[in-house]
Amino acid sequence: MSKINIVLGTFFGDEGKGKIIDYLATKSDVTVRCSGGNNAGHTIQVNGKKYAFHLAPSGILTPGTLAVIGNGVVVDPRVLIEELEVLRGDGYSIENLRISDKANVIMPYHIEMDKMLEAQRAPGDKIGTTARGIGPCYCDKYERCAIRMEDLIGDTFEEKVRKNVKNKNIIFKANGWQESDAEAIIEEYKPLAEYLKSYVCDTINLLHDCLEKDMSMLCEGAQATLLDIDFGSYPFVTSSSPSVGGVCTGTGLSAHDIGEVYGVLKAYSSRVGEGPYITEQNNEIGDTIRELGHEYGATTKRPRRCGWLDLVALNYAVKVNGITGLAINHLDTIGKLPTFKLCVAYEDNGVRTTNYSTNAAFQERCKPIYEEFEGNFEIGGATRFEELPEKAKIYLKRIEELTGVPVKFIGTGAGREELIVR
Length: 422
Hints:
Elements: E1 4-9, H1 17-25, E2 30-33, E3 42-46, E4 49-53, E5 66-69, E6 74-75, H2 77-89, E7 97-100, E8 104-105, H3 108-120, H4 134-143, H5 149-152, H6 157-174, H7 182-196, E9 200-201, H8 203-212, E10 217-220, H9 245-251, E11 258-266, E12 269-271, H10 284-293, E13 305-307, E14 309-310, H11 311-321, E15 325-329, H12 331-334, E16 339-348, E17 351-353, H13 360-365, E18 367-374, H14 390-403, E19 407-411, E20 419-421
Parallel strand pairs: 1-10, 1-11, 2-5, 2-10, 5-7, 6-8, 7-9, 11-15, 14-16, 15-19
Antiparallel strand pairs: 3-4, 12-13, 16-17, 16-18, 19-20
Helix pairs in contact: 3-4, 6-7
């Protein structure tokens, strides 16, 4: 019986998971998306064209690979269909798509709720939400009034929409926000339901059947560990569990079914939105990294905050997720700098520590302790670790030494083929 291999982010997202997922998907019979919504984006470059997947599993690009949206994902049907139509227009088949009947559906009133709540927060308290309705949709899930895919394509859809809109409009009216129109929503979503109906199924039994048939399986994580609702820098986090635990709750697979866990990171770090960021370089260095690495959000187009790689935080992600292998992207970007730094510990009230905490007071008072490395190296064209410049190898070996985890993948450029596999 096979195991499911996992690819997840180790920091704040945008680490280049799509590239690693794309490579592993070509060697997998099944790829699964297990959490989050269209607030995340995996960018994959194929034949010179970039595809930014927000909901469709990246494995959908690989003929013969089953692409599954698990029960832990919140689905905006409009966004998903738009992605599928782009793929169809480029000659890709979408018949390998499967959507969990238990996945929750993002409704227009979720998006309005998201916008309203963020607008009401004071400037210093804003979350930096993408306003895609993700959080409010998950709220309905735990409030037990959500509309699932099985409802969208079933007989209870209209009744549930009218009931939910009635309750949401009480809140909107009390806050002076535009109320939702239940009948307009029903009419808009009917054709969307018809489009997606043939792809909806019981994915839990489907995935277990695939494992029993010894089919190779890959789970692609969204967002990243430090945005996890439990383990991230709360409240500046996402509304789901993008750490390894979300794989089980978002697919119906068990811990026993997990194989390799690959943690993806950049040779530096970045963050979109608000929240603490100990190694941030809010200066000319950060601006330079942003431009060299083209650090603008795949979903929001917002400029990302940039800084040095933080091994204290990385080791936290290793512990939380049980990471067995690292995938490092943008080594080519950091190599363009004359020198660069690596955070190896924090100074906490004069005491050196390598223990990470998401506690706000801890994050505020800690100062990064750095080691410096030589840059000015080029790695383009390298296909094996041995071909990398010595300066690059020194940096990678230091990361391996301080994490105790081998570097399995090294991105050498934007293209899907620009990847060293060890």
